[in-house]
Design a protein that fits this description.
Blueprint: E1 3-6, H1 16-29, H2 36-39, H3 47-57, H4 66-84, H5 96-105, E2 109-112, H6 119-126, E3 134-135, H7 149-158, E4 165-169, H8 172-180, E5 184-188, E6 199-201, H9 209-222
Parallel strand pairs: 1-2, 1-4, 2-3, 4-5, 5-6
Helix pairs in contact: 1-4, 3-4
Bound molecules: 6-O-phosphono-beta-D-glucopyranose and magnesium ion.
């Protein structure tokens, strides 16, 4: 294992709740009610794709022009940015600081493969930017998760082969993207929702550098493509 590519929201910190609250506020102004179950489909999905899914849920997927939709997404982002102003190192999910540190000590390269354009700001607020060797710019992608592009780009930016990488995710769309990139996937959360991953663990404190290395070498040994 030469590199680990991390998702951000729901893996490094729990900003997923702020995305949900900001979307819920925007959707309710349009008369659309979204709940936590629906929100699962928004996890890992880009800002504009999330907006489209919400409009479709309200049966108004074709009502607005592209510029109107950009304005709605910008408004949601203004609310979201206010919410994340209070993010601090205390908001790192359990075990993540140790994990980043252990991986760096072992000489493993680290990358951020988050769909969020707010990723760099959040890493700064969490005071963990220095652990990351690269950050993929989601605004420069042709396709968002579940397309593998973001993970493929991350490996390219690190100069490593995808087969030597592990991707860590909390969303089904993200697991699909990791697998599609030819990497080994470790997922955090619900076993059923994330069943496509090479390994699913219930919580961030269950992920260690040793576990990632073990899952990676196990995946290589059991399917000859690696
Ligand atoms: C992902 C989140 O990490 O980033 C999604 O899981 C979010 O919920 C997406 O929509 C885009 O984030 P941002 O900060 O660019 O609006
Ligand atoms: Mg996530």
């Amino acid at each position: 294992m030469k590199a680990v590519l991390f998702d951000l929201d729901g893996v490094i910190t729990d900003t997923a709740i702020y995305h949900y609250q900001a979307w819920k506020e925007m959707a309710s102004k349009l008369g659309i009610d979204i709940d936590e179950e629906f929100n699962e489909h928004l996890k890992g999905v880009s800002r504009m794709d999330s907006l489209q899914l919400i409009l479709e849920k309200g049966g108004i997927g074709n009502r607005y022009s592209e510029s109107e939709k950009v304005k709605m997404a910008d408004d949601k982002n203004i609310v979201y940015k206010q919410m994340i102003e209070k993010v601090s190192p205390n908001d790192l999910l359990p075990g993540i600081k140790e994990l980043l540190k252990d991986l760096k000590d072992k000489g493993v390269l680290l990358g951020l493969a988050s769909a969020s354009q707010n990723g760099p700001v959040i890493l700064d607020r969490l005071e963990v930017t220095r652990y990351f060797d690269t950050i993929v710019n989601p605004a420069a992608l042709r396709a968002g998760k579940p397309d593998p592009e973001i993970f493929v780009k991350g490996a390219q930016q690190l100069g490593v082969d995808p087969k030597d990488c592990v991707g860590v995710e909390d969303a089904a769309a993200g697991v699909q993207a990791i697998n599609g990139a030819g990497m080994v996937s470790v997922a955090i959360g619900n076993q059923t929702t994330l069943a496509a991953a090479n390994k699913v663990v219930p919580a961030t404190e269950d992920v260690s550098a040793d576990l990632l290395e073990k899952v990676w070498s196990g995946a290589i040994n059991c399917n000859g493509v690696f």
